[in-house]
Amino acid sequence: MGLFTSKRDDTQITGLTFIDKAIEFASLTSDNPKLWTFESLKGNPPRLIRLKQLSVLLKVFTPEIYDANDIASGLKSLFSGEFLLQRDYNEYKNLLFITMDNAITASYPSIKDSFVTDHDLIHNYKRIIEFKKKLYPLLTHNDGYIEIGYPCLYAAVVTDEIANNVNTKTIDEFLSLVIDPTGKTISRKKLILFNNYPIKDPYKIDLDYL
Fold it and tell me: Does pLDDT of 5 surpass 50?
């Protein structure tokens, strides 16, 4: 009896897809920016493909921090929220800030004494990104297993049950709105045709480099 991985690259790309890919890549590279270069990943095609994907997605979703010659700086800015300092604060006022205010007021109805500012947005974004980065290895705890014999399935079953019940919907919606207030979805085919997005699916060749 076995437990098999079945990940496939996304066919529809959103701001959340971008964030999730960046978090996965950071986890695979021990969150070490020195490894966020094409040169350093030449010997690991699956990670190199992921970095090339992120290079395209940085340009599409966060063009204000895109530099083809310095992808690492773009990713660091993505994780820190510094890219928001280069955006128009008004983009978020009517949509995102209402969402934040409603969530805070629902839990703490009597303490509201000010409006959310751009620096507050960055603080909340950064804290949620940090939380999701810590959550990632827990949610993918069993992803490294290709096949598990029956006697060892118990640990996988009970830990998967916990992981599968973690609901990240609220923070995912927040992150999506921060990255892309317009909420666009772009097909993988379109990115390949017009943005030089890598054709290869990194998950299909992961097994060759375990």
Answer: no
Per-residue model confidence as pLDDT tens digits over 62-119:
999 999 999 999 999 999 999 999 999 888 877 777 777 777 777 777 666 666 678 8
Residue 204 CA to chain centroid, in angstroms? 20
The rounded distance, in Å, linking the Cα atoms of 110 and 89 is 26
Give residue 185's pLDDT.
Answer: 97
From residue 39, how far is each of 31, 71, 79 by CA, in Å? 17, 12, 22
pTM of the model: 0.89
Look at residues 124, 137, 210 and name the one whose alpha carbon lies nearest to residue 173: 124
Domain ranges of the chain: 12-209
Rounded Cα–Cα distance for residues 176 and 185 (Å): 11
Least confident of 17-26, 54-63, 153-162: 153-162
Q: Helix, strand or coil for residue 35?
A: helix
Nearest to 96 by CA among 51, 87, 26: 87
Q: Which residues contact 194 (CB under 8 A, 6 or more apart)?
A: none
Three-class SS state of 112: coil
**Run of H or E including 160:** helix 153-163
List strand residue ranges (DSSP E) for the chain, in order. 12-13, 186-187
For 186, phi then psi, to 5°, come to: -125, 135
The residue written with tokens 């992981």 in the block is 163
pLDDT greater at residue 96 or residue 2: 96
